[in-house]
Amino acid sequence: MTRQTSGKRARLMTEIGWREMAGLPDFGIAQVRAKVDTGARTSALHAVDLEVGELDGHPAVSFRLPLPGQTSGLRHTARLLDQRPIKNTGGVPEDRYVVETTLILGHRHWHIEVSLADRENMEFDLLLGRTALRGHGFLINPGRSFLAGPPTDPRAKHPIDAESGLLRTLKRGKIMAHSASEQGNDQ
Asked: What's the pLDDT score for residue 129?
């Protein structure tokens, strides 16, 4: 749904829910359940076995993204943007590695910074913080979910799936299919 805001500069806002399906094509993830969290500044992605090294002469971090239903996962290497203290869910700062990746939300895509953290005990493998969403014209509806629709590859102009070359839908324990029945009110 798109709404127009009032004020000096009228602007169209895209309404999204407190949870959405997102794509991370740089890491081969077609769909991952993401929690939209305006209380978090930085986004976070579930990653394990982090190792710092180099990529093309630049600092980099190598990590695994656990595959659904498996103890191991695909290993990825990304250029290291920063290492900074980020508060965990208990409010305690911990040093985390931060990388840049492409985020796809609905039919829109852009680059975001994401910290790598062990989110094994969290319900969502991806947490979208406010800096990832700021300036992109989103209005967050805390009473609704999955309003953006499935991630659509902007190059191919169709929803991402295994046949389009991306690897999987990520949800701990099983492959997940996004259905229209999940969309809408959370009441």
From this structure: 97
| Among 147, 181, 133, CA closest to 21 | 147
Question: How is the chain split into domains, by residue range?
Answer: 2-179
User: Tell me, what's the pLDDT at 69?
Assistant: 59
User: Which pTM value belongs to this model?
Assistant: 0.79
**CA 79, chain centre distance (Å):** 17
DSSP E strands in 37-157: the ranges are 43-46, 48-55, 58-66, 73-87, 93-105, 108-117, 126-128, 138-141, 144-145, 152-153
User: Where is 137: in which H helix or E strand?
Assistant: none
Reported as half-sphere exposure (CB side, CA atoms, 13 A), residue 29 has a value of 31
pLDDT for 119-138, tens place per residue? 988 999 999 999 999 999 99
Query: Could you tell me the CATH superfamily of domain 2-179?
Result: Acid Proteases (2.40.70.10)
Does residue 106 contact residue 14 with C-beta atoms inside 8 Å? yes
152-160 average pLDDT score: 56
